Amino acid sequence: GLLPQSIHRLGGYRVQGREPEAARRLREDARLLEEVGAGLLVLECVPAALAREISHALTLPVIGIGAGPDCDGQVLVLYDLLGISPGRRPRFSKDFLSGEPSVAAAVSAYVQAVKSGGFPGPEHTYT
Is-catalytic flag, 123? Predict the structure, then answer.
């Protein structure tokens, strides 16, 4: 998916894997990573359907960040989870601090939302 260290080469933060060839490469890379013994895979900024396909094809845990609800787990950068990131908020993030009395309560709300399947929702995913 998205490799934040390569955003300038990619032309900025862009969803990866929308084109058939890019999706094929992501599927193949994921399979190869599992084959060589990776312990887990992080998919960032990929269409939810592609993430679901990759997640179901692998036995290793697939963690999503902007990859839809069908990954084995979810991760958010703390600043995004708290809604305090500078600049434009990524589509896949949600402000869990709003309405909560503390950072700890916001993190607990995030954990509960992920466990219950309420996060990420359709508004936090890419097609």
Answer: no
Considering its fold, how many domains does the chain have in total? 1
CB 115 within 8 A of CB 4: no
Output the CA torsion 91→94→95→98 (10° steps).
130
Query: Which CATH number does the domain housing residue 74 bear?
Result: 3.20.20.60
Question: Which residue, 33, 30, 73, is CA-closest to 53?
Answer: 30
Mean pLDDT of 3-19: 66
Question: Over 60: is that where the pLDDT of 88 sits?
Answer: yes
Catalytic residue among 21, 44, 100, 123: 44
For residues 41 and 61, the answer to whether their CB atoms sit within 8 Å is yes
pTM of the model: 0.85
Q: Hey, what are 30's tokens?
A: 């994921």
Domain that holds residue 83: 4-124
